[in-house]
Input
Amino acid sequence: MTLKKISSAGLLALAALTVGLIVADGAFAQTAAPAAAAAPAAAAAPKLDTGDTAWMLTSTALVLMMTIPGLGLFYAGMVRKKNVLATVMQSFAITCLVTVLWMIIGYSLAFTEGSANAYLGSFSKLFLAGVGAETTNSLAATIPETVFVMFQMTFAIITPALICGAFADRMKFSALMWFIGLWLLFVYCPIAHWVWGGGFLGSAGVLDFAGGTVVHINAGVAGLVCALVLGKRKGYGTVSMAPYNLVYAYIGAALLWVGWFGFNAGSAAASNALAGAAMINTQVATAAAALAWMFAEWIVTKKPSVLGIVSGAVAGLVAVTPASGFVNPTGALIIGLIAGVGCYIAAVHVKKALGYDDSLDAFGVHGVGGIIGAILTGVFADVAVNPAGKDGSVMTQVYGVGVTLIYTAIATLIILYIVKAVVGLRPSEQGEEEGLDITLHGETVQ
Output
């Protein structure tokens, strides 16, 4: 079964209808919303807090470290030697591209306050108009808005970078740049708005503390679509595709683990007890998942591998992300154990059984781990940790997962076919055989 059997015309029609509804809803909401009446004297606005600001500056740096150098090394260590430089180039170039796009338009689309549109923000903060050291966003009222913009930018950077693991070894660099730019604006920004920016998923009670739907399910599903559309790597299943350097992968995974404290605990947007809860939950779930994957692999193959334990750790980090600020440590432990085994089965055995080539298990770890974590957030949400957890339920979480999965899959497919028509997706067979390092970048690892 492949995506090629899906009617392109039908998908384009569905996408056009979806975009039309979103635009119409925004236009109607903006024209129908009554002008705000003079409000009575409101309570004093929260003041900027130096402690919160210091923590969020630190968290922002930690999350940026997750992509460069963390994800770059993690992925580079798992590809073949001839594609190492092309792989680290992807993470670095995406960091640069997304930074510029986020500053110009991405932040405005995702987090414009006061937008009545449940599907997308407005264009009022293009080029960060009105954003300054003294302004704030209501989602982080005690830190400067400039810091909030930067923190959210690091999330926007790592999400599309994660997708690259699914098509490692086989996408043209020009295609990558086009795909990432379009995907950020038409997939990431809308979903970030739906969940965190005042959109319909957040209003429906979908719980996502730090990015289970926005980041991991989003990236994992997009990765699976990319893997299916691009097809298998040349020689997949017949030639050795052993990792080039597992020490690189180990270092990258370690940087991801440390950086993830900024990712999860930083999502409290303050230096407070909730940040502490998210931090310990992150540690517990990650360790549990790493052990669960290791022991599952040990039982099946009779040998616990370095690649297995670090992959399990990443699976735990992924799964606890939506739950980190809603569950207690016992819930985090259970989520980690389930994710470790579940992602091992998906990444190793399900992938083999179905025959698709998800090169570095972007879907098996991020997609499956994100789904597990998102659903179990509804199971283990504890109001003693976060009162907002009372609004969540398993069915609401399933709804959020389903909407994200369907929209991401369709939108990603359309973007891929557009890019394919414009610049093509894959290098020549000879270029792929020689390696992307020399073919696309004119460099090699000695």
